[in-house]
Amino acid sequence: MAHCAVCTSADTGFLAEKNGYSFSRCNVCDFIFLDPMPAQEELNIQYTDKNKEAEPTYNKAGSRLRRAWVKLPRFFPYAWTKNTLDLGCGGGFIAHVLSMVAKTSTGIDINANAVAYARSRFPRPVFLCKSFTELLESDKQYDFIYSSEVIEHVSNVNLFMSVLQHLAAPQAHIYITTPDSGHPKVPRNISQWDVFTPPIHVQFFSKKTAGILFERYGFRIVKFYKNKKPGLIFLARKI
User: Fold this and answer.
1) What is the full DSSP assignment across 68-135?
2) Residue 36 neighbours by CB under 8 Å, 6+ apart
3) 7: which of 22, 29, 47, 95 fits an S-S bond (Cβ 3.0–4.6 Å)?
4) What is the CATH classification number for the domain harbouring 138?
5) What is the pTM of this model?
6) Would you tell me the crossing angle of helices 157-167 and 207-216 to the nearest 10 degrees?
7) Cα angle, residue 175 at apex, residues 198 and 153 outer, rounded to 5°
8) pLDDT band at residue 51 using 50, 70 and 90 as cut-offs
């Protein structure tokens, strides 16, 4: 069994199998992960396909934009007159609404078609198509970083965290959403959970897991938001 990528413990064991993939679980921090973990290049095929989210349409664009506006009041205290980033921006909906209150708004995604759509529809933010390794070379930092439903897709969670650490300005706030493996509504047989879908989702976090991981990288979780659905939503701050 592989060591835990979150807490580095060797105390991991088999949890479940789905779609021909095997999941392990850390008995120390509750991190759930594919073992073996596919390479990021293999996973990226799902998000960079030339036909995925291509112009001139974008899947459920209207509802995505409406939901982005609904979320804006929650972001306002951390984004007002600040430099903001949506990491994994998709079609640019959150970056667009942030641009209405922020000093600067940037959206970054690995899907070139999604970035092209965002650029064509939303002129105010800056949209970039970059990989995590490219972002580690950036000299730009942000005061508020939003990253929704991204962390569960990456093969190297420590690379993702290194990118967050690198891009976050001192005292920056980080807003994360991801499936919550510790939620009471997750089925006892976790393979029956509707988001337990490898290789789309390759790892899962609980409040405990997130707290340990973010603390390792110099962040403190300041708030977990209530969610009736099994989704983890939290705000962290760079210490």
Assistant:
1) HHHHHHHHHHHHTTSEEEEET-TTSHHHHHHTTTSSEEEEEES-HHHHHHHHHH--SSEEEE--HHHH
2) 2, 22
3) 29
4) 3.40.50.150
5) 0.95
6) 60
7) 15
8) very low
